[in-house]
Structure formats: C-alpha cells, structure tokens
Amino acid sequence: MPAPYARPPLLADRAFQAVTALAIIDVAAFLLQERTGPLWPDALNWLLLIAVIVPTLALCRRVRTDPASAPVVRRYWGTVQAGITLFVGVAALRALVALGAPGWLLAVSVALHLVGGVVLTWPLIGLPFSAGGRARTVGVRLDLGTLTFAAGLFLWHFAASAQFADDRVTASRVAAAAVIMGAGLNGVYLAAKVVLAGVDTFARRGLYWIGGSALIGGLGSAISFLHPHQPSGNLLLLVLPLAAFAAAVGARVQVVDTAAAARPRRASRGYSRMPYVAIAAVDTLVLYNHIEHAGNGILIDGVAVTLTALVVIRQLIAFRLNDTLLARIGVQEARFRLLVQNSTDMVTITDPGGRLTYVSPAARRMLGADPDELIGTAIAPRIHPDDRVPAARCLVRVIAAPGATATFQVRVRHTDGGYRWFEVTSANLTGEPSVAGIVSNARDITETREVRDRLSYEASHDRLTGLTNRALFSRRVAAAVTGAGPDTPVGIVLIDLDDFKNINESLGHAGGDALLVHVAERLRACVRPADTVARLGGDEFAVLFEGARGADLDQVLTRIMAALLEPAVIDGEPMTVRASFGVAEGHGGDDPGELLHRAEIAIREVKARGEGGIERYRPGMEARGAERRRLVADLHTAITSGQLVTHFQPVVTLPGGRITGAEALVRWQHPSEGLLGPGAFIEAAEQSGLIVALGAWVLRDATREAATWPGELTVSVNVSARQLRETGFPDLVAAALRDSGLPPHRLTVEITESLAVGGGATAGNLQALRDLGVRLSLDDFGTGASTLSLLASCPVDQIKLDRSFVPDGGSFAIADAVAQMARAFGLQAVAEGVETAEQAARLTALGYDRAQGFHFARPMSAADLRARLAGEVVVTATPLGHR
Predict the structure, then answer these.
(1) Chain segment 721-766, per-residue pLDDT in tens
(2) Among residues 131, 465, 838, 871, which one has the fewest Cβ atoms lying within 10 Å of its Cβ?
C-alpha cells in the first residue's frame, strides 16, 4: 500500500526562512518607528521591503519550475512572480524619491503599483468555483453575496466613511471613498473566490494564503493611498511586506504539498462557514452601534436584515441539497443491499479478533448455514486445519495496516461435514466508520480446484496404472540426489518387460493393459512407501530407491523378480512376467541426468544380451572409444562435404488431411553405409558438440527449401539443448530467414519440455525467437516436464503429443488431457506418430486439428515433397462411426 501522507516542514527551506525573518524585522521596524519616530533614513525602509520581496520571488520561481506541479499551477506562479517583480521597482522608485530624486518618480511608482496589482489580480479572477449543479452554484453565489455585503458595510463604516467625517462632500472625497470601497471589495471578492475555488491541482492551504495576500495587498494599498488618517510612517511599508509574506507562504505550501507522495483531498462540504461568520460580525456591529451610537445605524440595520435574508435563502437551498443527497444515498444503499444479497459470492465482515459481524445471504448456499447464526462466531474453527496457518498469516498482514488487502485460497467446512475451496480477497476497512472491520469477498472455486488438481495429476501420473510418469520421476530423481548427503546412497532401477510385444499381441490391448496394471501393483507391493515407482511409457518401469545400499537393493530386486514370476490371471489365463533390470547406484550430489543415463546404459546392455535378469552399471560399460571417435570424425566430414540431406514429413489437417507444412528430418548419405537415420549419429553429435553445426546446417537447408513451397506452408525444425544455450542462436535463425527469404511466421522451432524449463540463456533465446516472429513448439509433449505451470510460463504456440500417447485401442486419457490443456492455454495441438485411420479419427474426436505420421506420409526427400504438393493427395481420417 502507498506510504502514509507525510508533509515536509515549511521552515526546511532557506528562502522561506529568510523571508519569514525579514518580514518579522520589517513589521517590527515599522511598529517601533510608529512609537519612537524615524530611526534611520526612509530609503532604508524601502530597501528592507525589497529584501523581503527577493526571497519571495525565489519561492515563486521554485513553484514555476517545479516539474511535479501541474502546468496551470506553474503558469499561475509565473504570473505572480512577474507581478511581485514590479513591486521591486515600486520600492526602488520610492527609495530614490526618499533620497531626493525628482518627484515625478513618485507618480511613476504609483502607476507601477497599480499595474502590479492588476497583474496579480488577473489570474485569480479566472479560478473556477467548486460548484457542482445549479443549486450548489446558486448557494456559492449567495455565500459570495453575503460576504460582499458584510465586507462593504465594514469598509464603509471603518474606512470609506472617514472621508466625510466633517460632513463635507467633495468630488475628490467621493472618488477616494469609491476607490477604497472598490479596492476593499475586490480584495474580499478575490479572497473568497480563492477559498471557494475548486482547482484540485492547487494546494488548498496555499489557496488560503493567496487569498490573504490579495486581501492585504488590495485593501491595504487603497487605504494607504486615500485614507485621511494615516500613521506617521508610510502604511505601504507595513502592507506590502505582509502581502509578500502571505504570497511566500502560499508558494512554499504549494511546493511542500506537491512534493508529498499523496496529498489527501479534504471531503467537500455542502455549506461554507464564511457567510455565518459574516452575519455574526454584522450582528456584533449592530450591537456595538446601538450601544455606542457610532453612526450609520440605518445602513448597518439594513445590511443585517439583507444578510439574514440571504442566509435564510442559503439555508433553504442547503436543506434542499441535503434532501436530494439523502434520497440518493437511500437509493445507493438499496442498490448495494440488493447486489450483496443476490451476489453469487459471499461477503463477510469480521472484527480484528476474527469474529463475524456481517455475513451475506450467499452463506446459506455456499456453506449451508444461516447467516444470522454465523454472526458473532469465529471463522477460524471452520477453516481446514492444513489451511489455518497460511490463512492466519494473510489476515495478520491485512489487519496490520488499514487499507491493506490480500488474496488467498482456503478450505472452509460446509454444514454437511465436507470442505469447499474458496478464493478470498480481504481488505482492512477498520478505518471506515461505516464498516469498522475486515471485509472479505469469498468465491467458491471448488470445481476449478478439482479440475486443476485432476489435470495436474494426470499430467504427472500414468493414467492406466496410477504410477508416477517420466516427468515426475525425473523430478523425484533430481530432488533425491540434491537433498541427500554425499554418503547417502541413491539407486535407480529401470525395468523393461521381456517379450511384452508378443504378450500384447496375443492378449490384445485390453489384456496388455491389465498385465501392466498387474505389474504396477506387484512393484508397489515389493518396495517401501518412501520409494518411487514410475511407468515411463509402454512396458518400461522405473524405481527410485533412497538410502538403500547394494545388498538391500539386491534383496528388493530379487523380491520383485519373484513377485512378477507368480502367475497372474489375465482374461482368465494365468500369466507370468519376466523382466530385465538396469541398475545405477550413486550418492547425494551426483548429477541426476547422468545417473539416469547410467541406468539406461545398463538396461540396454541387459536387453542386448536377451537373457533378462539384472545388470549393474559399471564404469566403461558404454565405452566404445575408437568407434565413437571414428563416427564423430566421419560426421564432421559429412557436415562440411555435403553428405547430409534433409527429408520432410508432412503435417496435415484433421480430418481433412490437407498438408499445412512439414517437419525437417536430417539424414546422412554415408559413402559406404548408405542412407542413415538420425538414430545412427545424433547421440554422437550431441556428445561431441557437433550438434550445433549439424543443427545450423539443417536450419539453413530447411528454410531455403520451405521458401520455395506455395502459400503459407510451414516448416518445423528440431533444436537441441546445446543449440539453445548458444548466445548467438537467435542471430543464426534470423540470418537463415533473411538469406532464404522465408517469413518468420512460417518457421516453427521444436524444443523438448526439458529445454522449456531450462532458464538462463535458454529462456532468453526462446524469447528472442518469439520476438523475431518465429513460432515455438513443445515436442514429445508428455514425456518430459509436462506441467500446467510450464504451459503458463513458456512462450510456445504449439504442443506435439508424443507418439507414445497416441490412442491405439487402449486408454486415450493422456491424449484427451493434452488436448484440453492446449485449448485452455490457447495453443495448437499436434499429434505425431499417427499410423492408422482409427487413430486419426480418434484424435479428431478429441479435438486435434493437426497430425503427422506414417498414416499420412513417411518422411520424403525435398523433391518428392514438392511433387506431392504439386498434385496433393489428401489422406483423411475415417470417422469413428464409419469404420
């Protein structure tokens, strides 16, 4: 919340300190000389006036040049500065006359004085009244009339009438009285105008001082020029310093209030005290006149009666405004009551102690409780025990500061014994007398939470077996090695069912699924509750053991093997399962990716033997140094000598089968081994770092070829982690697009989920690609870090369902969940690995509008793709109801 309003002290400014001190000295000198007579030459008094004006000009200049002030404020104070500057000339001419200069300079100073008064008066006349509506405007004008009548009476009685004290009436005396009355009424009018002005950009305290300066300067100057009874000294030496000081205070207040972070706005009243003060003053004058018989009795009584009539009229207008306001408030209260009572959200007010003082009728529907019965009870006991501490923390922050707000989610007990999820927004309105409590608005989000939790669970668990999936298993492995000490063992076991393909074909997909569920149950039964069992996909399982050493691990694996060999009845037939186990053992602090990699090496080794059983990773197991070095050298030659070729697999629409683009797939035209797929060399490229040069070649070749395709066909290029970590990768993409002429939106860069959560340079490069206009796609979605937070934070346009999740007669829950998440986040969903018309039809029914796979087209050369585009053959999805 914003910091509370803090107003800097007025005297913190040196120029204001100077003008205050000099004004005090000037006034004191004037009063002293009135008692003792002149103490020094009169010219020195005028120079002392100049000394008061100079710091006043400095304060005016600060407002005029203050960037925090509104333009209208700066213009006004610029005019004030110009007007006050003229009075420096007035004082200087008076000083020269006092030193013996020609008398005509005195007339010049009077003319300059009048011009300065006009310059200072003019901007005040343009200030608007703070009136809203016709009735309020009339009321303000009546207030101004009341003040004018009262001021006119006092000016006449105490100033202008002195011109005729000896009952002689002459033209000069009438003119002098008129000038005094005019100047005085003008000063009163300007002062009232400033006080009643409704200019929000001006500091209100400053407006009061501006009005005071106008009243002092205008009325005082008129009296000093024309009143027959003058002090022994020149009255201007008292009037002008006081007017300058009032202007200086106004300028300083404007700067101080503008510098404050949040100047509080005073609530406007429907009335002003000024007319009542005026009539009280006139009534006092009436009493004084009747006691002392000071003269002007008829005039004073007449003005008193007139003012009384004006105030009565003003009061009637105020009553009318009050009635209108009360009616409006009644309508607003009724509207607010209806809104609250019919709102789907529950509104509550609690005191700082947590007891309910108001509960809206929605509580009956949301909690099953009568709102009246809840009033006076504490809300905390109704909150779920697991949510009480975080909810209390939020409420403590709200209670600590008036105006503070907080939003949090909490479970609240229903009268049926269950709990409902609420999203609560609380605000501290203890400072509002009409509320005096903590206002909370609660919205029922139970269904939203259930859907979110279900989608999150399905994104991190295998739908068939309920086991952890690959993404969550990888995170568990990372957490285990990160949180464990260096002496704490961490073991990973990968399990692959032997001959499961034949079993699945003999039993059918339903039987195969039942067997997988049976395996999952046996695995869970054989391990500790703290161990993590996962299904990585297909017939691949994994177990994470934390704190289990070699001998203990062997005992568990032996138990698992024995449990799998126990016959299980599947579709009425007893079945036994044999499996291969790849084991990697490490300790806290090891690299989780390397630990998983070792387990994969071990499982590949045992599968290659074809004997099943258990294989532990041993250092050097993967070492085929000479072969790998030869492969890397040959690959380097292939990149530089043109042995690489790009094939393209079309991406088509569902259900129409129209080609919308293609995915670029690299092949190696090996001189002796023929055309090699990426499986033969990509791993070596990744390990050696050649993947960067290889990826750059594929990017340039793919964009160059795609630029020749008709229409808006797109090309997708896979990008590795090593490429995305290169700081110049976005520049490389931009250069490929520029050289090929391919528009950026026709290029899609495919990344894996693990890259999307990489952070650092990877995140920066992904954003740079988006800034270029290139589209991003999450490839093999569902096999990596598939989470809702990933989709919400990663700047992708498309997700590609991994081929392992494409419906193949079994469960299609993952495919359905991915399609729902894509729609929820506004992303395009593409299914890859579609091999049959039935799969295409199922994916169409789930909402996928893009797909690729052997059912539509196998990867083909650039020339073959161009030929196919020239005479496009459409492969459609067979509708589910027409198979």
Answers:
(1) 778 878 889 999 999 999 999 999 999 999 876 566 555 557 788 8
(2) 871
| Cα 149 from chain centre | 56
Distance CA(80)–CA(247), nearest Å, equals: 9
Determine how β-strand 613-616 pairs with β-strand 579-587. parallel
225 band by pLDDT with thresholds 50, 70 and 90: low
Of 717, 723, 704, the C-alpha closest to 777 is 717
pLDDT band at 498 (very low <50, low <70, confident <90, very high): confident
Q: Which helix (DSSP H) or strand (DSSP E) does residue 156 occupy?
A: helix 134-158
Distance CA 47, CA 90 (A): 11
Q: Which helix (H) or strand (E) holds 314?
A: helix 297-341
Q: In what order do the strands lie in the sheet with 419-429?
A: 356-359, 346-350, 437-444, 419-429, 405-413
Amino acid letter, 509: H
The single-letter code of the amino acid at 39 is L
Q: Decide: pTM greater than 0.85.
A: no
Write the single-letter amino acid at 755. Answer: L
CB distance 353 to 366 below 8 Å: no
Cα–Cα distance for residue pair 22/18, rounded to 1 Å: 6
State how beta strands 775-781 and 798-801 pair. Answer: parallel
777, two tokens: 């796609």
- What are the respective helix, strand and coil percentages of the chain, to the nearest 5? 60, 15, 25
Q: Would you tell me the crossing angle of helices 204-226 and 171-196 to the nearest 10 degrees?
A: 170
- Beta-bridge mates of residue 731: none
Q: Let me know how long the chain is.
A: 883
Extract the tokens encoding 106: 């005195």
What is the number of other CB atoms lying within 10 angstroms of the CB of residue 50?
Answer: 18
Helix H or strand E encompassing 669: strand 659-670
Residue 641 CA to residue 661 CA, distance in Å, equals 28
| pLDDT for the residue 335 | 63
Predicted pLDDT at 263: 47
Spatial separation of the C-alpha atoms in residues 39 and 447, rounded to whole Å: 91
CA distances from 584 to 50, 488, 562 (A): 93, 14, 21
d(CA 398, CA 465): 45
Dihedral angle sign, alpha carbons of residues 683, 687, 692, 694: negative
Which of 221, 227, 201, 27 shows the shortest CA–CA distance to 121?
A: 221
Give bridge partners of residue 420 from the DSSP assignment: 412
472 phi/psi in degrees, rounded to 5: -65, -35
pLDDT category of residue 783 using cuts at 50, 70 and 90: low
Residues 353-382 have a mean pLDDT of 85
Residue pLDDT, tens place only, 629-683: 688 889 999 999 989 999 999 999 998 889 999 999 999 999 988 999 988 888 7
Check if the beta carbon of residue 839 is closer than 8 Å to that of residue 805: no
What average pLDDT does the structure give for the chain?
Answer: 81
pLDDT tens profile 844-858: 999 899 999 999 999
Tokens of 561: 């093997």
H or E stretch covering 305: helix 297-341
pLDDT tens for each residue of 96-114? 988 888 888 888 888 888 8
Q: How confident is the model at residue 134 (pLDDT cuts 50, 70, 90)?
A: low
Q: Do the bridges between strand 419-429 and strand 405-413 make them parallel or antiparallel, or are there none, so unpaired?
A: antiparallel
* pLDDT > 70: percent of the chain: 79
CA distances from 473 to 76, 489, 594, 712, 783 (A): 71, 17, 14, 40, 11
Q: Is 805 exposed, middle or buried (0-12, 13-18, 19+ CB in 10 A)?
A: buried
Among 323, 299, 275, CA closest to 181: 299
